[in-house]
Amino acid sequence: MVALKDKLFALVKSLTKAEKAHFSKYARLSSVKDKPDYLKLFEYLDKQQEYDEEALNTHFEGEKILLHFSRKKNQLITKITESLGVLYESRTPETDLRRQMNQLPVLYEKAIHEKMLMKEVEVRVRAIKKLAEKHEQLHILMELFDWEKRLIVNQDKKTKEQETQTLIAEQERLRHILNVELNLRNIYSEAYLILTKDIELEITANRDKFERLMEYPLTINEVDDLSGKAKKYFYFLKSSYHRIRQELDIAYKYARLLIDIFEKEEKKQGFISTVNYKNQLCYYMVTCSRAGKYEDYPKIIAKIRKMYDNEEEDTLLLNTMSFLGLKYYLNTYQFEEAAKLADDIDRHWEALLKVTRKRRQLAYCYNVSVAYWLAGNVEKAVTWLSRILNFEDVKEGQRIVLFARILQLPIYYDFKDENLDNRVESTRRVLAKRKQLGDFESMVIKFFRKLVRTFQKDKKQALFQKFHAQLTEFQANNTPAPHGLEELLIWCERKNNGK
Questions:
Q1: N or C: which end of the chain has fewer CB within 10 A?
Q2: Which stretches in the chain have pLDDT values below 70?
Q3: Has this prediction a pTM greater than 0.85?
Q4: What range does the domain containing 15 cover?
Q5: What CA–CA distance (Å, rounded) separates 246 from 448?
Q6: Do the domain assignments include residue 182?
Q7: SS3 string of the chain?
Q8: Is residue 473 part of a domain?
Q9: What is the pLDDT, as a whole number, of residue 272?
Q10: Does 339 reside within a domain?
Q11: Considering just the CA atoms, what is the radius of gyration of the chain in Å?
């Protein structure tokens, strides 16, 4: 378990500038004289970069704050959470409705003794119900039934029994909708955990469990009868189900419907559940990638990148967005955008290493090298290329290491490496030793051998033109094209155009 002192320090450091300002004002509300000890502690911790209890004791030496210090730490945690509760109590319809619901018991207690106030209770219940229906807050609506029944009992009407029966029928209908939502939520929770660990369900036990979980969602035909939350769970499950069955157009359709719900909510309510939205945007990118539908990629990447300006800790999602986004930009020849995304990857690289397997790390290094190189930043391309060659003793992803052997030749040529001749021969020896010196690799080696020995500009230009023609012919006659061929074609075209 994390120590309390660490929790307190982490909580203080997690606060935004606005949250800190609000807390400082909130902390003084109940203090008419001196600054309370917990506020002094807050202000001290806020200025520190690391938690150091010895330094803290020295700072407050001789002050009463150190008496019962553990209790004062707990008090600070309580006050901070209270402050956040007040600051955000009307931030979402759910918290605003909960605040209004909490006021009903007190007002009703007064109305029992003063009948004139019962009308005010009725007005508030109706207002809460209208808002709860608008935002589909089903749990609030279920709680309101008890209040509506109390109001019927306190009215002098002959239709009490009929109104109560109508209310009970409405309650049963809502209970069914809520039960479906809860069932789908539970299935979603289990399925999400499985897919997070094994997104393609390559492990038989995970696939079997997922298929059992899908038995209930597959029986649902009337999607319009589902609540908004239930639709989110349903669309995610259906999209995942069809993606795994390689029914990629159907999977894409459901993924798109899911994103539409989030974005309609944002427009309607002025806010969005950021964590869930990020999750689904990344899964949407995966589904788009599988289905070959990339038209929404730029907008998705921009949205996720904007969210990461404030929440950098969510590395798993950053990993998905970065990896797929980089592939998209490279495949669509948007090298400047690829380099911008590579900058994000560079900034978060240490965190990404903790959540990615060696093979993906190698793929990152390769793609980032290409992004920087083709965007004109050869120095950074060399830096990332060197990281690949440091993986030579790692068994996983060795094909990428061999691809990098070919990639290094044009990159180091642009880098004006004086040792390029030795690199060419070293590449030939390594590929031959690994039995990877095929027709394509031999053609590349032959070209670079001639290139490093040619100094006249016109002869170099002739070499590039001939090499480009060879690459084009090779591409036309070989499917799939070997890795690195497309990058070399782009490079040759640029050289032929004098770039």
A1: N
A2: 1-6, 30-33, 266-273, 308-314, 391-397
A3: no
A4: 4-87
A5: 42
A6: no
A7: CCCHHHHHHHHHHHCCHHHHHHHHHHHHCCCCCCCCHHHHHHHHHHHCCCCCHHHHHHHCCCCHHHCCHHHHHHHHHHHHHHHHHHHCCCCCHHHHHHHHHHHHHHHHHHHHHCHHHHHHHHHHHHHHHHHHHHCCCHHHHHHHHHHHHHHHHCCCCCCHHHHHHHHHHHHHHHHHHHHHHHHHHHHHHHHHHHHHHCCCCCCHHHHHHHHHHCCCHHHCCCHHHCCHHHHHHHHHHHHHHHHHCCCHHHHHHHHHHHHHHHHHHHHHHCCCCHHHHHHHHHHHHHHHHHHCCCCCHHHHHHHHHHHHCCCCCCHHHHHHHHHHHHHHHHHCCCHHHHHHHHHHHHHCHHHHHCCCCHHHHHHHHHHHHHHHHHCCCHHHHHHHHHHHHCCCCCCCCHHHHHHHHHHHHHHHHHCCCCCHHHHHHHHHHHHHHCCCCCHHHHHHHHHHHHHHCCCCHHHHHHHHHHHHHHHHHHHHHCCCCCCCHHHHHHHHHHHHCCC
A8: yes
A9: 61
A10: no
A11: 31
Domain count of the fold of the chain? 2
Q: What is the pLDDT of residue 4?
A: 43
Q: Tokens 């002098």 appear where?
A: 156
Domain stop point among 64, 87, 110: 87
